[in-house]
Design brief:
Strand content: 15-25%
Number of strands: 2
Largest sheet: 2 strands, antiparallel
Order of helices and strands: EEHH
Shape: rod-shaped
Distance between the termini: 53 Å
Oligomer: single chain
Helix content: 55-70%
């Protein structure tokens, strides 16, 4: 329903009329004061469901905005979970890479000792050194990936990741 609309216009002015004299050629002026008043009142009885449609339109706009907020929070939560899991993954990979470097260093010592004793060829030493250098390069690359994952975590959460553990997976819900 719409309320009654009203409009009032008013004007006042003076008008000068010049009329020729009927008996002669003389002209005379007549001053006439005019008042003009108008009043208009209208009420829309049926607007073609326009008001109802506008109410529905605004209701759906509000629902859409609410769903956008929920979507944004879900996406932010997903980003945080992904950053958390990436830090865990990179830390785990770094532990494996460091253990690999330690194993290659141990092999290198064993092969080097054998080469010095004359039981191993010198080519084995070069190959072991090459593999040790490759393991160190891999560990270095994983350290950089871990720093990047921690930086992403800080960007999403706002603080440095501390002690982290893999969350329990509710397998009964999968």
């Amino acid at each position: 329903f719409r309320f009654t609309l009203g409009k009032v216009d008013a004007s006042c002015h003076e008008e000068i009329l010049q009329r020729p004299h009927l008996r002669g050629r003389e002209r005379f002026e007549v001053r006439v004061a005019r008042d003009d008043h108008r009043r208009r009142v209208s009420q829309i009885l049926f607007d073609g469901w326009g008001t109802q449609n506008e109410i529905e339109h605004q209701k759906y706009r509000l629902e859409t905005a609410t769903k956008r907020v929920h979507e944004t929070t879900e996406l932010l939560g997903l980003d945080i979970v992904q950053a958390y899991l990436e830090v865990l993954r990179q830390r785990s990979l770094l532990n494996v890479a460091r253990a690999n470097v330690d194993k290659h260093a141990l092999f290198m010592e064993t092969i080097d000792a054998g080469a010095k004793a004359g039981t191993r060829p010198t080519g084995d030493v070069a190959q072991a050194q090459s593999r040790l250098n490759g393991a160190r390069a891999t560990a270095s690359s994983i350290e950089e990936n871990l720093r990047n994952a921690e930086a992403l975590f800080i960007q999403k959460v706002g603080e440095m990741p501390g002690n982290m553990a893999m969350p329990e997976i509710p397998r009964e819900k999968i």
